Amino acid sequence: MKEIIMADRAGFCFGVKRAVDEIINALESRASAQGALLPKGAVWSIGMPIHNPQEVARLKTMGLKVAQDADEVPDGAMVLIRAHGESRAVIEGLRGRGGVIVDMTCPHVRRAQERASELSSQGYDVVLLGDARHPEIRSIMGYVDGPIDVVANVAEAEKLPKRSRAALISQTTQQEELLADIASVLVSKTGELCVCNTICKATVERQDAVRRLAGKVDGVVLIGGKESANTAKLRDIAEANGMDVLWIESVDGMDWGWLQGKIRIGIAAGASTPQWLITEVCNKIARM
Question: Domain boundary residue among 172, 199, 226?
Fold first, then answer.
């Protein structure tokens, strides 16, 4: 018999739950709307609203339309600004075309955007810790008017030039240890360094919950979208703590051979993973 041990923090964080609730409210409003204000089918998201393809597929069945960029969104449509946020230019452009904006930007991302904007306006060169390709990083960059660099690790930080004033800001899903390491590198390169810990508490809680599984389980099933940055960090932390990790998006991705010989199975999930997916995986393992 398999013993399932859940990480004590897993699944939707506050920001993602808030975003999904807003999406459902918008879709229901669209479905019941009369007249031209909210025409049927006019609820759009630019990019995946959350990094979980199964949950996004469910929302699409309810009427959500996902555009690759703002140019694909019809004039006058209702547009959902996803939890990762968007740049000021994108939002202003949509409003200029008559778009009805529902801003679902996570409050922690909003704080990072505001701090980046404030510090840039005060003359600081902004250094962002994170993945340059991630939509959250692109949204924060859209609030900076002055010099800005994006670094993903210590090696990239070491290549930055010396400067008189710099501000270090983090993608909300990074590890605090890495933020501290980057700050240590920049101290020797900067006359005045301002460090802003914009990593959200929910991210830290999920990372700590995975660490607490070490020594208690024979392996960890990690549930989350393969594009999810915070889920990738959970995988890295689990492996760094000596745990065998199986990263899946849904029960369809289970490698049942991986379970052989394992009695105590840890379950962890990224901040964009809905509870219904976690329950499906746990029930399937339990039935074995």
Answer: 199
Candidates 273, 267, 235; CA nearest to 254 is: 267
pLDDT, the chain, mean: 92
92 tagged catalytic: no
105-117 in b/e form (b: 16+ CB < 10 A) is bbebbbbbbebbb
Q: Which amino acid is at 182?
A: I
Structural domain harbouring 177:
108-199
pLDDT digits (tens, 9 = 90+) for 113-159: 999 999 999 999 999 999 999 999 999 999 999 999 999 999 999 99
Beta bridge partners of 81: 103
Q: Looking at the structure, do residues 70 and 118 belong to the same domain, yes or no?
A: no
Catalytic residue, candidates 136, 176, 239, 249: 136
- At 155-207, the pLDDT tens digits run 999 999 999 999 999 999 999 999 999 999 999 999 999 999 999 988 899 99
Q: What is the model's pTM?
A: 0.83
Looking at the fold, whether 95 and 152 belong to one and the same domain comes out as no
Q: Which of 85, 105, 125 is the last residue of a domain?
A: 105
Interior angle at CA 279, CA 52 and CA 262, nearest 5: 100
